[in-house]
């Protein structure tokens, strides 16, 4: 008989993946508009694919330096200098890893002792809490305001002697909320006051429809600030599994130990593809962002003619829709929407109790399909 580790009992299956699997099974019998999965509906740009193929043909198929190929680390540092005026030493303060998600897990392993608390703002990405629990930490959720905006007024009162870290996602999956510079200044000030680590997951930093401030721009807290980024969303490279961590050298050195004993290094071909992504044309990034904004505007205007309400996202390709008019139990909202309208979504409850009246829509379908979605939702 298998005797699994007790920590596994703390985990829940991913709601988004479970619904995506259900959609695959049902699509044979009915026409479903799938708005579940956080995957761009664009292909990886051609010059990025060609760079990976070139690396393969040139024999770059072995291990790389554990922290990542030097050229890629330099390109990441140069990107942050160009876009955010942030200075990172490419050889000591940049770590390339197999996806941003893996990077976040490294951080939990590197910093959390049993019972350490990590503060999260609801609604937040569903994997954060499980990652914290897997590393014997305690996720401490701050309920959102009525419009799902983070409630910073509750932040300081949520800090206890056990608090180790504040973790934010900026822009936010699932709501598309973008933290303002003033809000970040407040979070940073409290992190300093209470001697906390602050982590900003900025995987959607190029998919924004307003001014964006990166945590990397706060040079005065480099000793406690960690930025996690990657290529999956901005460059439509989800399957390439390539991300990075930016932090001061002492932190990167410890995180790097975990990386060495976990993955050794990121895929060499993915690293050269990421290098081409950063150093090549950025037109595809701008184009994709414009398309997502257009879809957001389309849905925002159309939802007003339905019994539902959309919270207009400021970034990402997600949107939270208030489905309280369904009069369903919070854990059944997405199933009810699927049954009545043939539209697949993810329960808002997956992202925190504050989002119990919502579902998350991933706007990764073309405008014709989204128009059809609106038509379905307008029917009682």
Task: Describe this structure as you would to a colleague.
By secondary structure, the chain is an alpha/beta fold. The protein folds into 2 domains: 6-43 and 283-377, Aspartate Aminotransferase, domain 1; 48-279, Aspartate Aminotransferase, domain 2 (3-Layer(aba) Sandwich), CATH 3.40.640. It is built from 12 helices and 13 strands. It has a 7-stranded mixed sheet, with helices on both faces. A 4-stranded antiparallel sheet has the order 9-10-13-12. The chain has a two-stranded parallel ribbon with strand order 1-11. Helix 5 (126-134) links the parallel strand 3 (117-121) and strand 4. Helix 3 runs parallel beside helix 9 (268-279) and helix 4 (100-111) crosses helix 8. The termini are far apart.
